[in-house]
Amino acid sequence: MLASPSTSAKAPVTSEDHWLGWRPFAGLLALLVLVSWPQVWLGWQTFEYRDFGIFSYPLAHYLRASFWQGQVPLWNPLSNCGAPFLAQWNTQVLYPPALFYLVLPLSWSLGVFCLLHLFWGGLGMYLLAQAWVSDRRAAAFAGIAFAFNGVMLSSLVWPATIAGLAWMPWVVWLAQRAGRNGGRTIIVAALAGAMQMLSGAAEPVLLTWVLVAGLGGLDLLRGKVARYKIIFRLGAVVALISGLSAAQLLPFLDLLDYSRRQQEISAATWPMPVSGWANYFVPLFHCHSFQGVFMQTTQSWINSYYVGAATLVLALLALGQRSARVGLLAALMLVCGVLAVGEATPLYGWLARQAGVIGMVRFPVKFLILPSLLLPLLAAVALGEKNFRAPQTERTLWLLGGAALALILGITGWLWHTEPPGDDLKVTLFNGVLRALFLVAILLTWVWSEKITGVSMRRLCQLLPLLLLWLDLDSQMPSPPTVSRTIYQPSLTRTQPLPLAPAARVLIPGDIREQFNHTVLPDAATDYLVRRFALAGNCNLLDGIAKCDGFYALTLSDHAALFVNLLGGREPAAPLLDFLGVADVLQRTNRQLVWQPRTTYLPPFTIGQNALFADDLATLVALTNASFAPLDEVILPLEARGRVLAARARTARIISTSYAAQRLEAQVETPVPTMLVAAQTYYHPWHAYLDGQRVPLWRANYAFQAVTVPAGQHSVKLVYEDRRFQVGSVISLVTLAGCLGLLWWCRR
Fold this sequence. Notes:
Blueprint: H1 22-36, H2 38-41, E1 45-47, H3 51-68, E2 75-76, E3 83-84, H4 99-103, H5 106-132, H6 136-147, H7 150-154, H8 159-181, H9 184-199, H10 202-222, H11 227-244, H12 246-258, H13 261-264, E4 287-290, E5 293-296, H14 309-318, H15 324-340, H16 347-354, H17 369-383, H18 391-418, H19 423-449, H20 455-474, E6 482-484, E7 505-507, H21 510-518, H22 524-533, H23 540-543, E8 546-547, H24 557-566, H25 574-580, E9 582-589, E10 592-597, E11 605-613, H26 616-623, E12 633-636, E13 653-660, E14 663-670, E15 674-678, E16 686-690, E17 693-695, E18 698-700, E19 704-709, E20 712-720, H27 723-747
Parallel strand pairs: 7-8, 7-9, 11-12
Antiparallel strand pairs: 1-6, 2-3, 4-5, 9-10, 11-15, 13-14, 14-20, 15-19, 16-17, 16-20, 18-19
């Protein structure tokens, strides 16, 4: 699908580094990834740390189950009283490489899937750097620095994020080639861009195209290629990516309109601390540990963004070049660094008001994604400079290296005198000294290898700084714990049976959820098993149990208004719990968690209610009142008044029901027109059919669904029909066919 790496760079290859082509580098990189996590590759253990176990793995499990049932999972009935699934984007429903973990055993393949993207990102950075410089060793340095930098390693817990990051250098490299060369490179760049788009990582996609746009602007200014050609070619790439990704983007953008993501964004949420620049030299600076892994005190998104002190020194060396491209990269890093601190400067708030797309970057610290790509690239630019061996350049390198060394030792010494003694401080001090040693060793061995004359010895010495760089990055902080794959077995923690969906739901009160967010047990496996028992995050998907909450990037506004804004940490009143079908509530008794059963819960379908009409505020108040009678009344929005005629029908009955993920059916009988109510979250792609004829589906009880049923016996169906997904699928298939046809025509 992609262009041959052997033709990626036009720059001449020197006889000194011809042995380190893309194939040997790919082998070296694969070996390093394997050595870093042999227990995951061999299937002895797998990831569990943080979001991998409670977010990523359950989503992949649900996707895999749907795949083997031959169903595209557009809707998830098990979370948030029902929620869109494919439209979430980061669920990777349409990401082609996800077939790897859909087909192979999930407890092994999902961890390996993330590691394969680590390798893919490093290889892409090698090819991008090789296209910029003539030194393959410099490209190899950049590839290892990118593959093992702190952002990449921290993102192993999110398959969507690590996939989006891995495609960043590929998209930049191929988009540049497309803008300059045109032809079939436009198709290849579009295919790579679509892969990144379908990976489900919003922030890496956005920041990738910020860089592509900047580099395209430089090409326009230089004028080496006709300006109209660059604009047309890059425009064609964007158009083709949009077409190829339409099946994913159209449902996502629709959900974004109906979700609370924009309202939940705040520049004060998880920024990089102002002193966070020190973590580029000492990665554990002002961090705290849990389960042996360190995290900054002001943000809980990534564990580290360390790219190597040697990488940083070389990137600073590159800034001395008089190059517009280097200047662009420096400006982007500066802007990202300022935005990453959030409200510490007024830039984030001002830019968010001027460009709403900034809200796509959920936490300010995520702006550090782009520097994690730019710093290795700048390091390669410095190493690939023709006069790198010149005495003046070497003196500058040692001057910068000495300053960085003094800074590392100064930060470490300051921590020694100011931080309270303890295990965390000992680990931090040792870590800082180790960074200093690696900085000196990498720079020394690189400069030394330039002066070796023997071929065999020279190659060995050229390999040494690359291995030291890997060791520096791999040891930048204690590795996240891995655990036995058995923790993901279905029903592993069930000491008491819980109702399987859709018969009923369970509820985790807000105060207990909050405790889980702030409590971590020392042993990773035990901690996860407790969370599985409590169905924390998305763990309910592993056992097919429905619940009232969930762990997703996008939440439908009506559901969030009821459960987050109104109820907050409070447990709903008993009538609302009955309506929601809550059969078990998690309780803490004698310092133990137990599921407390309830017997008054109602089935998913109820019939015979009298229709009342009220505005949203009055409806929310009524739902939380103990006098709410879900079997006697249903509250519809004011616009339904005059269009809905329904009365209380005590003798109305539901003859039979049928439930599926994206279809609910009921055979009902009623003596008078009345309402059939479904305790499922309302979302506009759901449609109602009465005896095969389309009828209005009303938003009922603020966030749920209801249908008017006339007198008599009828068949009612609620069907999830996402027109945007259907239209997007047609656009994507037509665009893909066109791309493949153009590739075939270009080859001829």
